[in-house]
Design goal:
The chain is of the alpha+beta class. It is 28% helix and 24% strand. The termini are far apart.
């Protein structure tokens, strides 16, 4: 019989984050905090032009500048392989898309503002910047293509002269014949065109890396802020032409990732090359301006979407035509992001058939890649904006058209036209609960009161579903230490999500110990053989199950040792408060003494691995209520309600934090954030002076609750939550704004971001 005494902060408990004390007292340790004796500093000389051929006339003066140790150009790193697209896309003719790799340093052509030309290493960043001013470069400026849609048009400037215009790839998903038939037979067709604006992640901690060559060990030590050290090591080894064992990667605390820190960037191999060349450690830290022009951007889609319906508003088919900006190169997962979104085309609705054509366009801009949600927010945005437009055209309410089309519990498990298999959920029920919590029926009264103040209100909803915690595994190892505490080793990487708390709760429940006594060890390739890193809301759903299994195994080992020491049966041993005790007696032995009594180190380690065969599918309803001042164009979010189905909740505090953060990022996209390039490819929004970010006064309080239906594909029933807020929020906010505009001014379309100037202009034109 498996006995563990009651644990205060086990699974489901609202335990406070155990890692926060260090962060709020300034004791966190980030990559840039690490400094070694003799360290040198790197600086990247970047292109001021979006498209140009160039020739480096002379670097000698820069190299001779006091304090400068190296100036690297493309010739110095010619033996390095470029950074490649990892997930190519199969095109309709069966071919895979051609790669346009990212050179470590550009040789003779630059393709976006910020493209890397030289790497200067000096005693300080200031000295390196001064030296960069001494490098003579002759640029021949060429025309640029910066518009996602226009880049595919005849006559557009080409990013690659040998390419098929600016077409990066083509992909089709669905059944064209069945979809066309459904549209031909439809009683009504609704069509919309939308722009999903380009974003910059702007995590609190900018990227940084430090590299050192250990001559004696014959390997590199690389410290880098990342979302997983093992992925970093694999890509670096491929780039550098090294074996995995020749690279030791460490990631300390990370101040935000959002997908953008998954990737290896040019500065990492550059620091490694310089460190080996100079025999000294080399550090590079991005400043905020560099972040805008060097780190992968997110979103940037142009889409036309059509829905076929019968006279009662029952959906029969959906047709999507999507153009996704790839930027100047194919980034690591670039083409995969729109593909992933397309797999969620039909959302929570019973739509029998779909057709989705996706084209990637090259532009003279920073490459795009995964940004929180990675394709799924884009898909939900298109679908939910389209559904609201369908309701308007058929004179139905937003909830009514959804009720008529939502997949019912009786249809589950349900396989979508894109091949996604939804296992569990009660979709109409969370919509009803959200409407109740939002006081949907009382909106008209609130709107009338707002009118007395010279303002108008809008209310909008979105129902969403996403795929996350994709098939795979994440092994976990937990060790009993001599002092009776535990070390937990796992290959995920916290970027602020609270993994140390969530994992400790799961382990503490099985080991009968305070969760503060369990320390998370992550971010070191020397401590594990492999790990999947953090992304796609996979850490707790996959890693958490493995933590539970590892803890259960170690608990049994502890009981067996205790039984020998106490001369009892292991079935009569319970674990409680750091002790193993014979049930119903005062005879016990501490975990510290058990560690001393162990005959083999293997007796002090638990191992667990959960292999998940299918993704999980969190889902929910978001309802946003806005108040618009038509005299200023200012939009205020006055009420926000969410009811989510996350399967099982590990920690409600951590969960709420994830949802709140995701919603705020979506509010930023709806109201503030927008990357703008001019026709020459110059980035006009290259700092916080020009790029709007959500602030505390843009954000309301959130009414967040769950109505969970456990997953059947995850062993703990967890569905994943890290990206969900961004997926449901964007369409909810925009549907609320459009609802107000349509009711008052007959305006049924506006694109993000809805800045005061844009909204004021639209209202005045309509008036």
């Amino acid at each position: 019989m498996n006995k563990v005494a009651h644990v205060k902060f086990g699974m489901g408990a609202a335990a406070l984050r155990k890692e926060d004390n260090a962060f709020i007292t300034g004791k966190g340790c980030y990559t840039d905090d690490k400094t070694e004796e003799g360290i040198l500093y790197g600086y990247v000389l970047r292109s001021p032009a979006a498209h140009a051929t160039f020739k480096i006339e002379d670097t000698s003066e820069a190299l001779a500048h006091p304090g400068v140790h190296a100036v690297l150009t493309a010739e110095d790193v010619a033996d390095l392989k470029p950074l490649q697209n990892i997930v190519p896309i199969k095109q309709p003719d069966g071919s895979m898309n051609a790669n346009r790799d990212i050179p470590i340093l550009c040789k003779d052509t630059v393709r976006h503002v910020g493209d890397a030309i030289c790497f200067i290493v000096a005693d300080s960043v200031a000295i390196a910047k001064d030296a960069a001013e001494l490098i003579e470069i002759d640029f021949d400026i060429l025309p640029a293509a910066t518009d996602t849609e226009k880049a595919l048009e005849e006559g557009s400037a080409l990013v690659y002269e040998d390419g098929d215009k600016n077409l990066a790839f083509t992909h089709f998903m669905g059944d064209r014949e069945a979809t066309d038939k459904a549209f031909a037979e439809a009683d009504h067709v609704t069509e919309i065109e939308l722009i999903n604006n380009r974003l910059i992640s702007n995590y609190m901690e900018t990227r940084a890396v430090q590299a050192n060559w250990d001559e004696e060990a014959g390997r590199f030590d690389v410290t880098v802020g990342s979302q997983g050290v093992f992925g970093q090591r694999r890509v670096l080894a491929a780039c550098m032409g090294l074996e995995l064992e020749q690279i030791h990667v460490m990631t300390p605390d990370v101040g935000g990732g959002f997908g953008t820190k998954v990737f290896v960037y040019r500065e990492y191999p550059l620091c490694m090359v310089a460190a080996k060349k100079l025999g000294r450690p080399v550090k590079w830290t991005s400043d905020r301006s560099e972040h805008f022009v060097s780190d992968a951007h997110g979103r940037d889609n142009v889409v036309t979407a059509k829905m076929a319906m019968d006279k009662d508003g029952k959906f029969s088919a959906i047709d999507i035509d999507l153009i996704a900006a790839m930027g100047a190169y194919l980034h690591a997962y670039g083409p995969f992001i729109p593909y992933l979104g397309i797999t969620m085309t039909t959302g929570l609705y019973d739509i029998p058939t779909m057709a989705a054509l996706t084209r990637g366009s090259y532009t003279h801009t920073v490459p795009t890649d995964a940004y929180r949600g990675a394709g799924r927010p884009e898909a939900a945005y298109v679908l939910e904006r389209l559904v609201d437009q369908c309701a308007r055209e058929l004179n139905l309410t937003p909830d009514e058209i959804r009720k008529r089309n939502l997949i019912t519990p009786e249809q589950l498990p349900y396989t979508t036209p894109a091949g996604r298999m939804y296992d569990t959920g009660e979709y109409e029920e969370h919509m009803k609960l959200a409407m109740q919590n939002a006081d949907w029926d009382g909106f008209s009264e609130r709107n009338e009161k707002a009118k007395l103040q010279g303002k108008i209100r809008g209310i909008g909803m979105s129902t969403y579903i996403e795929a996350c915690a994709f098939a795979g595994s994440e092994p976990a190892f937990i060790d009993l230490k001599d002092d009776g505490t535990f070390d937990l080793r796992i290959g995920t990487q916290s970027n602020g999500q609270g993994h140390a708390t969530a994992y400790a709760q799961l382990a503490a429940e099985k080991l009968g110990i305070d969760y503060e006594k369990i320390q998370l060890r992550q971010g070191d390739t020397d401590e594990l053989e492999n790990g999947g890193g953090t992304g796609g809301s996979r850490s707790v759903p996959l890693g958490g199950v493995s933590v539970v299994r590892a803890s259960e195994q170690l608990a049994e080992k502890i009981k067996n040792i205790a039984a020998d020491e106490l001369e009892a049966s292991s079935a009569d041993i319970e674990l409680d408060n750091g002790e193993a005790r014979i049930v119903g007696t005062d005879r016990s032995i501490s975990f510290a003494d058990i560690a001393q009594a162990a005959k083999d180190d293997a007796d002090l380690t638990g191992e667990g691995e959960f292999q998940q065969e299918e993704a999980t599918y969190p889902n929910g309803t978001h309802i946003c209520e806005v108040e618009i001042d038509p005299n200023t164009g200012v939009t205020e979010i006055v009420k926000y309600t969410v009811v989510d189905d996350f399967g099982v909740t590990v920690n409600p505090i951590l969960l709420a934090g994830q949802v709140h953060g995701g919603i705020v990022q979506s509010i930023g996209q709806c109201l503030n954030e927008n990357v703008v390039y001019d026709e020459e490819g110059q980035l006009l929004t290259a700092s916080f002076m020009d790029y709007g970010m959500p602030r505390a006064d843009n954000v309301p309080g959130f009414d967040f609750s769950t109505r969970n239906v456990p997953s059947t594909t995850n062993a703990l029933g967890i569905k994943g939550a890290g990206e969900a807020g961004t997926i449901g929020a964007t369409p909810a906010v925009m549907n609320a704004i459009v609802e107000a505009l349509y009711r008052e001014y007959n305006i049924d379309h506006i694109d993000m971001p809805v800045t005061p100037a844009k909204l004021w202009s639209v209202i005045n034109q309509a008036s």
